[in-house]
Design a protein that fits this description.
Distance between the termini: 28 Å
Number of helices: 12
Order of helices and strands: HHHHHHHHHHHH
Strand content: under 5%
Largest sheet: none
Helix content: over 70%
Number of domains: 1
Radius of gyration: 19 Å
Shape: globular
Structural class: mainly alpha
Length: 289
């Protein structure tokens, strides 16, 4: 893989993972539109998982004080970090919600179950259907618009309970389908449950960590079991992970600030238009073939 491809795909991952537009769909579509086929489909997927490791690092680093406080308060301790710091969630640091860590764990369960059941099918079939990807971009975009319009947006992050966690977790499970968007589906579910935009996004980003860590560890084990990375792939992997991690932190900060004063309508329009274009191109290619 040429380094420039690794750089482009890492940038796509950083924006696509945290903005509600589907990183997996954009990675697949980028390769499709540019005709990048140097790697096998299996190695493409492996590289995509590596890029997800980069955005996982972004979440762990950006929200580091929050993670420490979540873990400490989740086990009954007193939060060591004070409010207002880098990447922090003020209510958690005040110790007002000692259950949020466990709601994150609960919300991870549906995605873990579905991922285990549909892992091989998703790796092959879902990624090959451009019509499905386009349709999911449109459908989730419209659901996002409905949640934005009718959700209420009054509840803070610390109001999340077990039912909210389960619903958001089920929404995350659908993100196995490219085009759905993990952040898009979970933010939409959070809005539908009445969370304000920033709280829905923060919970979505925190929820990324356990499910992504599990996928990364499983894929890393499979790669090592198969003999490690192919020759020449180490540098692209390191480059991709580094860029997606660094740029991912920038995108997190931007998006959380954006949501304080803006709606998600811009992303709704983008998703719907892109989805229609993808469906049109896929149908044209199908008829031409």
């Amino acid at each position: 893989m040429p380094i420039y491809q690794a750089v482009v795909l890492a940038v796509v991952q950083a924006f696509g993972e945290f903005l509600p537009i589907s990183s997996s769909a954009h990675l697949i579509l980028t390769r499709w539109l540019f005709g990048w086929s140097e790697l096998s489909p299996a190695m493409d997927l492996t590289f995509d998982v590596a890029l997800h490791a980069g955005t996982l690092l972004a979440v762990l680093i950006y929200f580091f004080p929050t993670w420490v406080n979540l873990i400490v308060t989740g086990f009954g301790g007193r939060p060591p970090f004070t409010a207002g710091g880098f990447g922090n969630v003020d209510d958690i640091e005040a110790g007002s919600d000692r259950m949020l860590l466990w709601w994150i764990v609960l919300a991870t369960v549906p995605g873990a179950i579905v991922g285990k059941l549909l892992d091989k099918y998703a790796e092959i079939k879902f990624r090959e259907s451009y019509i499905l990807i386009g349709a999911m971009l449109v459908i989730v975009g419209l659901l996002m618009w409905l949640a934005e319009k009718f959700g209420g947006q009054r509840r803070p992050l610390t109001s999340i309970g077990p039912l909210d966690a389960l619903i958001i977790g089920i929404a995350q499970a659908f993100a196995l389908i490219p085009g759905v968007s993990r952040s898009g589906s979970t933010i939409t579910a959070g809005l539908a449950r009445g969370l304000d935009r920033e709280s829905a996004a923060r919970f979505s980003f925190l929820l990324l960590a356990p499910i992504t860590a599990g996928a990364v560890l499983l894929k890393a084990h499979a790669v090592m079991k198969a003999g490690g990375l192919p020759p020449g792939m180490k540098t692209p992997f390191i480059t991709g992970i580094s860029i997606s991690a660094i740029l991912g932190m920038v995108v997190i900060a931007f998006f959380l600030r954006f949501l304080r004063t803006h709606s998600l309508n811009l992303f709704v329009i983008y998703r719907v238009l892109l989805g229609l274009v993808v469906i049109g191109l896929a149908l044209s290619h199908f008829h031409a073939g």
